[in-house]
Amino acid sequence: MFIECQDQDSLKMVALIFVTIDNKVINKLFGRNFAIMTQSNQLKRITLTAVLLALCVIGANVKIMGSVAFDSAPAFLGAVMLGPWFGATLGIFGHLVSAGLAGFPLTLPIHLIIGVAMGACMFVFGLVRQWLGKDTLKGVLCADVLGYAINVPIELVLLYPLMKQAVWAFFVPLTIATILNLIVCEVIYAALPHRVKDAPFLMPQK
C-alpha cells in the first residue's frame, strides 16, 4: 500500500514537471535536433522520458541487499535511447524525486550532490554511446566503465567533505548497485528489436 501511494505521488510529480516546462526551454535544453522534430515525435520523446523518470522512482523501491536498488537503470537506458541531455535530466530528477519521497534520508545537500553526479554520469554515458555507437562493444565497455567511475569513486570523493570517513561505507553498496543497474540497462537495450531502436524520435544509431 505504501509503495502504491509513493508510485501515485511520483507519477503526479513527473506529470507536473513535464507539463510545466515550456517548449522553448525544452528545445534549448535538448538541442536543435529536438527542435526540428515533428510535434508527434517530440511528444513521444517527452512521454518516454516521463515514463523512465517514473520507473526511476519505482525502481528506488525495488531493493536488494538493503540500500541497493534499481533506481538508475531507467536513467542509463534513457541516456542510450534518448541521448545525453535526456539522460542527465533523468539522472538528476530521478534521484531527487525518489529521495524527496523518502524524506531526503542523507540530508538535502548530500542528495543534491548525488543528483548532480548522477546527471553528469548519465550525460557522459549517453555521450560516449552517441560517439562510439549504441550497439558496439567499444561503446558499451567505454560507457559502462566511465559510468561506474563517475557514479562510485568520483561521487564518493565529492561527498567526502560532508561525510568524512563515513563515505567509504557506501563504496561496496554503490559498486554493487551501479554494476547491477548497468547490467539491467544493457540486457534490456540488447533485447529491444531494431524497429524500436531505430524509431525516429530516439537518438540515431551510430
UniProtKB/TrEMBL annotation:
Single GO term (MF): transmembrane transporter activity
Pfam families xref list: ECF_trnsprt
Domain of life, source organism: Bacteria
Membrane-crossing residue ranges in chain numbering: 46-64, 76-96, 108-128, 140-160, 166-192
InterPro entries with a match to the protein in the record: ECF_trnsprt_substrate-spec
UniProt keyword annotations, A-Z: Membrane, Transmembrane, Transmembrane helix
This protein's name: ECF transporter S component
